[in-house]
Structure formats: C-alpha cells, structure tokens
Amino acid sequence: MNTLDTLDSQTAEALSQHNNFNVVYCVLLVIFIGILLYLVRLERKIARLEKSQS
Amino acid sequence: MNLKRDWYKWAAAILLLYVLLGGLALPLRPGIVGISPIRIETGKTVEVQVKVSNSQWTDPTQISAPYPKSLVFVSEKVGRLPVKAPQEFTPVNNTPKDSFNSVLAWVANGITYSSTSMYVYGKCDFSMGDSPIPNEIYSVFIELSNGKYLGLPDAVFIYRGNSDTIGSGKGLTYLKSSFNNNTPRFEMRLPNRTVLNESVRNLFYHVPMWFAMIALLSISVFYAINYLRFQRLEDDARADSLIKVALLAGILGCLTGAIWARVTWHSWWPREDPKLNGVAIGMMMYFAYLLLRSTLSDPYQRARITSVYSIFIYPIFIALILIMPKLSPNSLHPGAGGTVGFSKYDLDSTMRVFFYPAILGWIFLFYWISNLHLRITKQTEKYQ
User: Fold this and answer.
1) Helix, strand or coil, per DSSP, at residue A21
2) Residue B292 burial by CB count (10 A; 0-12/13-18/19+): exposed, middle or buried?
3) Residue pair B1/B354 in contact by the 8 Å Cβ criterion
4) Taking CA atoms, what residue in A is nearest to B23?
5) In terms of DSSP bridges, do strands B149-159 and B39-41 run parallel, antiparallel, or are they unpaired?
6) Can you tell me the distance from the alpha carbon of B262 to that of B349, in angstroms, rounded to the nearest whole number?
7) Domain B31-176 maps to which CATH number in 3.10.100, 2.120.10, 2.60.40, 2.20.25?
8) Of B38, B199, B373, the CB nearest to A24
9) Is the ipTM beyond the 0.85 threshold?
10) Is B241 helix (H, G, I), strand (E, B) or coil?
11) Chain B contacts of A23, Cβ < 8 Å?
12) Predicted confidence (pLDDT) per residue in B80-110, tens digit
C-alpha cells in the first residue's frame, strides 16, 4: 500500500462518518447553558436588590 | 402577562418551540455522503462503492420510492470540451439535440443496491474512448428512477492510466446536462449538503445568535443617540442592557460556531476566515466598552462617554463582521467573494420556513432577557 492509497482509505473513512447530528445537540446545549448561567447571574442581582430593600 | 405589552415574549416562546421541534424532527433528504475509491485510473473497469444517507429506497414506509438506476461521473470542465459530434456516441439518455445541452460523462449501468444497505455499487468501464481527457476531479451522481439525481460534488479524482489508449472502449458518453437542475421547492425534508449533512440544522441555532446580537446592538445605538439628545439616564440604562445581552448572544455565537467548525471545517477557529477575525476584533471592542463603563462612577459622565463610544464602535463592528468578509475573496462562511449570503443557492424553501422564524424567535428571546436586565438596573439605581 503506498501513501496515496492510505490517504484514499483515510478520506473514505472520514467521508463515511457523516452522521454529525451530535454537533446539533452540542450547540443547543451550549446555548441552553449559556442562557441559564446568565439567568442565574440576574437572579443573584435580584437577590441582592431584595436584600438592600428590606 | 399583558398580551399587548408582552407579545414578543409569547412570540419568542411559540417561535422557538416551533423551530426546536421542526429543526430537530425533520429528516434530511437523501444524499451521497461518500465514495470509494476516491482516485480512479482510466483504462480499467472499476467497481465503485457509493455511500448514501436517508435514501428513500431503504425506507420501508415508502412503497413507491424512487430507486437508483445508474451511477454517473461527470466533470463540468470535461463536459464542456467539444470533443466530437454527439451523434457518434451511443447516448445513454435521449439523444441530445446539440452538444451545448449535454455533458460528457462516464455512466455505470446495472448497479446493485439493496433496501437494507446504505451502499450502492456500480461497475464502470473507465476508458477514454475517442478523445483524451485531462486529469480532473469529477462529481458523482446517482440517477434515480424518477429522473432526479443525487449528487456529491468533486467526489473522485479520475486520471489517465498508462494502459489506456485513445480509441479503446466506449468510454465517455453524452448525457443531457440536467444535473443540479433540481429547483428548490418545499418538502418536509431538510436538504442534505456535502460536509454539513445533519449539522445543517445548526443554521437555526448558531446563525440567529449573530442576528440577535446585531439586532440588539442596533436598538442600543438608537437609545445611545436618544441619551445624547435628551440626557435621560433611562435611555442609557436601556442601551447598556441591550449591549450586555448582545454580548451574551455573541459569546454563544462564538462557542456554537467553534463546535460546528470543529466538525465541519476540522478546526475550532479557522484563522484564515475573515469573518472570525472580524468577530474577534468586534467582540474585543465591546469588551472594552464593559471595561470603560466599569471605570466611570459618575452616572452622567459614564452615560455620555459610553454612549459616544458605543455609537462609534457600532459601524466598525458591522463593517468587521458583515462588510469586510464580503470583500474578501476567500471565506469559509457563505456569502463571501461578492455574493450575497442566504441567497437561493444557500437556502432552499424548507430551510427558510424554519430559518426566518428562528431569527425572530431568538431576537425576541434575547430582547426579553435584556428587558429583565434593564428592570434590575432600574431598581438598583432607585435603591442606591
């Protein structure tokens, strides 16, 4: 097997791994966690506000 | 909730639910995802293996689904070569009227496939025929029984073999050039694109982050100008809330883009992409805004300086992420090299049905969050 043939099989292998649905779940998870963390920050601000009010 | 005042919150909830369910549940259209071998020497008969995904003939619920008829190897460059009059070849399809309407192609008839396998096999006689061909990258198509084609562009490199001589074998045949003529129309399946495949759904989740960021920054500029005109601290607080939540959208856009790029472009942050460079500088300018704001304590002075700063950096930001990448000849993102992004070539009608609601939904959601931030800021200032 020469180098080009190895490259050939590697590319074919890479092409066959087409099912990249997981990346969609990862993206949604990142967005969800990001918004959640921001909401937690806002929540803390509200708690501080309530504390200063009372 | 007050429906008249809070309509956009309802809209955000409904639109995002629709986009989330539809964007995840809709299947992809059939498409070719791989071919083996990827280098073919002419002068031989080669068995080619083509891998498909979401093919309808493997779906037991589709009884009269179109099935594969032949494998076609075609190159645009070779197809345009005026080799000989098409009448001298044995055409596979109908006899083409003139050579401009036809392309030269290698065709493998009598292919094998099964309703349980993702692979389509075809034996093809790759011989030059009557005229020499250049070494070229070819696209591969599966001709379906309904006359349509499944394609994988630039899939296989076909080069002249030493044993191949001109005049040996039938070789290339003329086909009517009806490839890529599938006009985009609505169907309940998302397009199956090379490289992207299932991750094409990220268009509904990654791209709207940037739309939301730009929308929120645009509204914030409006309030920053209003502050400079009327000196109302509320306008400044509004502008500030919008910028902070826009930054959240921008950070999420960067993170989700990095994940998507890792899978499709094989790099977390492809440095040669002008859009990414522009975004990096643009985000830095808005981080500098946060820094600037935190160093000033007098509310009126802070409002004046940061309003002026944000008005100035907004057009630079827009230029960096929207205009500069368009001027650049090479970008991995769509819409580079003078073309308009999200044109009919990038988006088909099924994608649009989810993409536009996704943009609106995410903009409304981030505007809602910025509204919460604003209300907290207002209360904080009241009790200080």
Assistant:
1) helix
2) middle
3) no
4) A24
5) parallel
6) 27
7) 2.60.40
8) B199
9) no
10) helix
11) 198-199, 202, 259-260, 262-264
12) 444 443 333 333 443 334 444 456 778 887 7
